[in-house]
Amino acid sequence: MDQTITSVDDLQRLAKRRVPSLFYDYVNSGSWTESTYRRNGEDLARLLFRQRVGVNIAGIDTSSAILGMRAAMPLVLAPAGLTGMLHPDGEILAARAAARIGVPYVLSTVSICSIEDLAAHTKQPFWFQLYIMKDRGFIERLIDRAKAAKCSALVLTMDLPIQGLRYKDIRNGLSVPPRITLSTLAAMISRPRWCAAMLRTQRRTFGNIVGHAEGASDTMRFSEWVGKQFDRTVTWDDVRWIKQRWGGKLVVKGIMDAYDAEEALKAGADAIVVSNHGGRQLDGAPSSISALPGIAAVVAGRAEVLVDGGIRSGQDILRALALGADNVMIGRAYLYGLGAGGEAGVMQCLDIMSRELEATMALCGLTNVRQAGPGTLVNPDFVAPYGGNLR
After folding, report:
1. Which are the contacts of 37, defined by CB distance < 8 A and separation ≥ 6?
2. What is the share, in percent, of the chain residues with pLDDT greater than 70?
3. Where residue 177 falls among pLDDT bands split at 50, 70, 90?
4. What's the order of all strands across the beta sheet hosting 250-255?
5. Confidence of residue 389 (pLDDT cuts 50, 70, 90)
6. Whole-model pTM?
7. In whole angstroms, what is the distance from residue 95 CA to residue 141 CA?
């Protein structure tokens, strides 16, 4: 790392300089007008802390339990597609950093590195994220591959029956898989350091899909295959089927409504993730943090509740815990670190967030993350009305 890094914002600025614009924008954007993407961060920032003094804050403990695993802090590295295009071998590097810090890592279905590849290059069990696609045979094989790799949890993303309109990707000519055009080539060669590193790896395609799915035997055929796989018929019956096939811990991601949270529990979810896909699906939706309190109240301890969307500091972690989350997921924050400096950048991101969390807890008079609650905030009610009604 070639400059002083004090925050995730610093990592973001460095990643922007080092990663080709089409891949940087893929991470740093939302759908449509990006109003929901912006709202995720803005609503978190509006939550103010209750500062306390005269409290013994010796021995601050930031650790948490996440689906039975002890974690150094209440945080999971969320699944992210194309991670290996931000930095060569990106999934492996991010998973290694997570293991070194002591938090879970989730591998995406549309990762560059495959399940088997990640398992061969890491020692700590990781989680695997799954989309429900039309090819149910492929889904069955993916689940079986995750079992064989001893993945400790399956994360089922429910909010992608169709892809949101991501205008930045369209303007940048970013397709799945990325195609070489004059504009994309120009974006890549403008980052010679990235190009040189990418030439040193063989991981440049979608390792979980190409060569594994019928009709996706190579990268060119993959594009046609993936366009046919969005499934508008998905229901909670599919979740029950996946739970039975998987047999292990199931996390249902993409919950923004209390009714859907209840349905996820009925379908066998061990945890839910309150998430609007980082503002990348339905623009004009509420922020994840505003949906959290009502949904957490409905879940009421029957499953673990995680939240993502806009969380990019230790203070944001504490805000989420105060409003009912058991743990949080981060995506863009660690991806900025990866783009800025590979494994060391992800480590730096997690270290920054850990230090910020500890400092904020201390100044709020907390010594354990489980002490966080509405009383940790001056204005917890500003996000409370949404998300708590069962229809």
Report:
1. 29, 30, 31, 278, 279, 280, 283
2. 94
3. low
4. 75-77, 327-330, 304-307, 271-274, 250-255, 154-157, 127-131, 106-107
5. low
6. 0.95
7. 23
Contacts by 218-223, CB closer than 8 A, 24 or more apart? 219/177, 222/176, 222/177, 223/175, 223/176, 223/177, 223/179
Which 3 state secondary structure label does DSSP give 247?
A: coil
| Residue 147 near residue 241 (C-beta atoms within 8 A) | no
> What's the pLDDT tens digit per position in 108-155?
999 999 999 999 999 999 999 999 999 999 999 999 999 999 999 999
With residue 58 as reference, give the H or E element that holds it: none
Query: What would the two tokens of residue 23 be?
Result: 């891949």
Q: Which of 87, 121, 212, 277 is catalytic?
A: 277
Number of Cβ within a 10 Å radius of residue 218: 10
- DSSP-derived letter for residue 285 is P
93, 346 Cβ separation under 8 angstroms: yes
List C-alpha distances in Å: 2 to 18, 89, 104, 355, 356.
12, 21, 28, 21, 22
4, 66, 115, 190, 327 from 258: Cα distances, Å: 43, 22, 32, 46, 18
- Residue 121 appears among annotated catalytic residues: no
What are the structural domain ranges in the chain? 8-380
Q: How far apart are CA 65 and CA 54, in angstroms?
A: 29
User: Other CB atoms closer than 10 Å to residue 127's CB: what's the count?
Assistant: 23
Stated length of the chain:
391
Instruction: Summarize pLDDT for 2-48 with one digit per residue, the tens.
Output: 578 999 999 999 999 999 999 999 999 999 999 999 999 999 999 99
What token pair was written down for 25?
């924008």
**Angle between helical axes of 288-299 and 314-322 (0-180°, round to 10):** 40
Beta-sheet pairing, 69-71 with 271-274: unpaired
Contact between 369 and 61 under an 8 Å Cβ cutoff? The reply is yes
Distances (CA, A) of 247 to 69, 106, 135, 146, 151: 18, 18, 20, 11, 12
Any alpha helices (H) in the chain, and if so which ranges?
8-18, 21-27, 35-46, 83-86, 90-101, 115-121, 136-148, 167-172, 182-189, 192-198, 219-227, 236-246, 258-266, 288-299, 314-322, 332-363
Strand pairing category for 64-66 and 69-71? antiparallel
Out of 3.40.50.1820, 3.20.20.70, 2.60.40.1610, 3.30.70.330, which CATH number does the structure's domain 8-380 have?
Answer: 3.20.20.70
Residue 220 CB neighbour total at 10 angstroms: 11
